[in-house]
Write a structure and sequence with these properties.
By secondary structure, this protein is an alpha/beta fold. The protein is about 60% helix and about 10% strand. The chain starts with about 20 loop residues before the first strand and ends with a helix.
Length: about 950
Amino acid sequence: MPRASPDLACAQCGAPAVGTDAARKSVAVLFADIAGSTSLIEGQDPETAHALLRPALDLVAACVRRFGGTVNRVTGDGVMALFGAPSAMEDHVLAACCAAVAMQAELPDAAPGIGLRVGLHAGEVLVHALHADGASGLDAAGDAVHLAARLQQAAEPGKILLSGTAARAAGARVTALSLPPMRLRGITAPVAASELTAVAPELTRLEAAGAATLAPFVGRSRELAILAEAMDAAVACRGSAIALSGEAGIGKSRLVREFSRQGPAELAVHEATCRRWREAVGFHPLRPLLRRMLLLDAATPAAEAQARIGAMQAAWPEPLRDADALAAVLDLPAAGPWRTLDPKARRRRMILVTVEMLTRLAEAGPVLLAVDDLHWADAETLSVLAALADRLCTLPMLLVLSWRPDFEDPLVQNPTVRVLALGSLDQSDATDLAARLLAGTDPAEAALLARRAAGNPLFIETQAAARREQGTAAPLPDSVRALLGARIDRAGVYEKRLIEAMATHGEPAPIELIAELAELPVNNAAEAAATLTARRLAVAEGVGAAAELACAHPLIQEVTYADMTRARRRVQHARSLHVLERRAGEAVEPLAETLARHARIAEDSPRLVRFARMAGRRAAARDANTEAVGFFNDALEALARLPGADPALAVDLRFDVRDPLFRLGRTAEVRTRLEEASRFADGLGDPVRQGQLAILLSHITWLSGDHAASEAAADRAAAIGAARNDTALAVRATFQHASIALARGQHGRAADQFAEVAARHGEVAPANRYGVDAPLAVIALCYGARALIDAGRLEEASARVEQAEALALKVNKPWTTAFARVTRGHWLDASGESDKAVPMLEEAVRLGEAAEAPLLEPVTTLFLGTALLHAGQAQDARRVLERSVASGQRIGFAFCQPLRLARLGAALAACGEAAAAAATIAEARAMAARQGEVT
């Protein structure tokens, strides 16, 4: 891991600005220990002991490095290794399994008489330098390390114990014998483990998955058409080569498989795959294909294979009569004269004979030759394919290659090879794939998953699998993190700083802003941005200084952020908070949500109080009530951490959170917050806040059916308002008295008082503390109309409804619009037009749901159920009224609960359930008596 540069520090706190000394990584941890080492070297001279153990330890280290791992700790008799650190690597668990199997297989030859115990686990660790200067290499910390060590200690000599997590990650490419859950020292819960016995790294993901478990194939009609046209030309002996270039998981191999299934009946399909960890082995992807051509299998002895090649020579054309070269390609023992040839001459003859062999594939008819993953090809294979591509124009062969976009080889520029860039699925196809994989879920969720994966089929598939197994809160799939992490970790220091700044910022921003967040000069940032864009890790929209930069897609942002330590995140968020606040100056309100997020993670409590409160108010104003509650709670928690916090602010924040909590129907939390506010307010001696508290207490007790307590609190508010000549408080106290009158069936009084509230709201500044504003006037008009309807004064009620509808149109909020629709529907129902009332009330239900206001549900469903009952739809009425009663009970909305029960009783009676109806009506009467309400 690179050392931290002294100039890379946060301007605010001085902490390292880049997490070069530590990072979070998803890794495989391997421990290998020599069994019985103590007895083996007991009494031995130190040099003799070293000579006994060293060959085994050297072999273990060599196997780790062969498969891309890092040996980060060597003890006298054991090794700890990491796969996926310091740089992420794809298939890191498979690589660790390969290394473990290799060391056990090769140990008897390297160190006879010595046995190894191996333990392997996968998980997230903190990778860090052993010392502050980083000179001593790397170490890792976390539960994953301890579990791997305990598995190694529990393993028998010669065995490999694999955790359940690692086994699932390696998948079908490993063979493991499941064991009973194990009790390991220092670990509380039993651990799922298995014994690793074999590994098959040569299997591709498609081969390992098997046809039965493949995800649906969607889209790619353009690419299939191009391949089909090229295949038609090949059938006419005008062959060609097409290369599919695309990121890992984009569907290159799957496209070839689907195309091969659609080819002509006489088409012969031959496949070869370049294997990771075998890049240095010449001809390695072509050797299995050639052996199949010669009818040789893995069990054919070398002597028999050579004899068979010799016997076939006479029938072959002159260029193929090179048995020595073909035997060498197949890794068979070479004859004496062959070994004496110049290496360059041997290589030329091996390439030539391989090209000739591949051309013979087309002798019997049209051929599709697919060679996958050329980014892992050896130099000899690439030379063979380049020479073959030059010969295709007269052959009935279509050569389909695939590689990743960062592949660098002359084949990329070869004019005989047509490169077809395979991009992401379009949003429609990506959503279709996600929807099929998430069968039965909300289509919006499928669209969201598709966008998060940026149309990458593998990422969609792995996310969907995690979603099915772990629910909606499924974490970032480990395979996705490894694939993208490997790309991100190849970035340079400046590129890494820039992408971390983008991941922290979380949204597109001008390059000059991202440069400041990353603490880079703009010219360096622009160069780094160009590199990231070229590598498809970032996207830039626009040109020049106006260009906006962002992570290429959400998963790149998530992986970058996941690899940052918490300390690093705090530093970066603190930097973002400082820069954005300074740039905004006085106009910070539009950035409140962003600033609150940065302040929360930066653990800057004073700024979090300020910006979270501001963000909460903005969210509440647009009826984003859940979001508003989250911000207000953030502010309250931050305020509690501040020494000597202002008690007035503590009261006000609890008043702020009350409204969105109320709309969400979380009435118990409302009461808790108001009780807390009361404790803080006692020592303030502030009549304004005391009046506000009285109003809010009056409202919540009214809602809960305690109308006596509600009236007492409203009286206190009215007295304070009169004493201070506070019009806003007096008007709001009147609203509370009117609400109590409505509950008690005092319809005339309620109608008059609600009319007074609606008429006088304009006398009060909108910024008053008591919520006297146009939305409250809408509610007052609606409640007043309801009182008039219940009193049979339908004509007067109609005028009120029209006023409410007109004002609701100006307010333009789902909450108030729903109230107006409910009232109009109630009026239509009371006027004998229930059929017209039903669609109006159904719209009110939908508006309440859109307003994220569960508190409206008991109201809207009460009147919808009533209208359905009056319209003769008893069963529908029963269903809706049962929902109304249940929602009222769930949120503690006791006001009108007797009425809801009474209407449900009527619906039950209409459905012929007399006993249930009688019991429900009796319950309604008892509750009404307790609360002093009329039904």
